[in-house]
Design brief:
By secondary structure, the protein is mostly helical. The chain has helices spanning 20-33, 45-52, 56-68, 87-111, 114-133, 136-153, 160-166, 168-177, 181-199, 203-227; strands at residues 72-75, 79-82.
Length: 248
Amino acid sequence: MRTPPVLEERRFVAGRRHTIAMQVHGFLRREIIDARLLPRAPLSEQDLSTELGVSRTPVREALIKLADEGLVDIYPQFGTFVAPIKLREVYDSQFVREAIECTAIERAVALIEKPQAAALQQILDTQRRHQKAGERDAFFEADERMHAYLLEIAEHATVWPLVQSAKSQMDRVRHLSIRSEVKLSSVLQEHSAIVDAVIRRDPKGALEALRAHLQGLFRSIKALGEENKQYFALDNEGPPPRVARAKK
């Protein structure tokens, strides 16, 4: 098994735009999806409230919401833990994402204008720079921006939060996969094919390129499942043992 790269530690800084519970939820959600908080790591309300500098109430609310999203497992009278990646949920999120984005891209092809084509190409160029610099988090953010912008071109920008919510388990797999330089290059090639087809106003080519790109997740799961078994749920898996909170 390859040793994963060292991830830069993030710090929670409360702002004023959202409630504390929403901010704690967003912070912990990113930590789980980015694999900074590892599957089966215990999550103590008291420890988290101390670490983040907030009361236990917003932490409890955030953990409940994360449990609703399948990112946290809560076992009454036992403990709360980061959920392992459940393949069934990954496949379900893939189904939702493919249905929405593949429907929208044909409309994006029909509606795209020159300024939008230039902006789309710029997003791709930004992602390429992040790949060369080894900036994986920024690479992932540019990836997200490209997909969100395609929905915006299709005049369905408000659908993107729904896609994000549905694909949280898929994003955990994506973050693991982009630790590989080969996968980074593959994603860029696939994005280039999508952008080129959209700018050429080729609906069939754009749809085929996008579907192939999204279905690449299945290849990633097979490879990652062999190299990173500890991240994925086992059959009939119960609660993990109570151990010290693990963090990468």
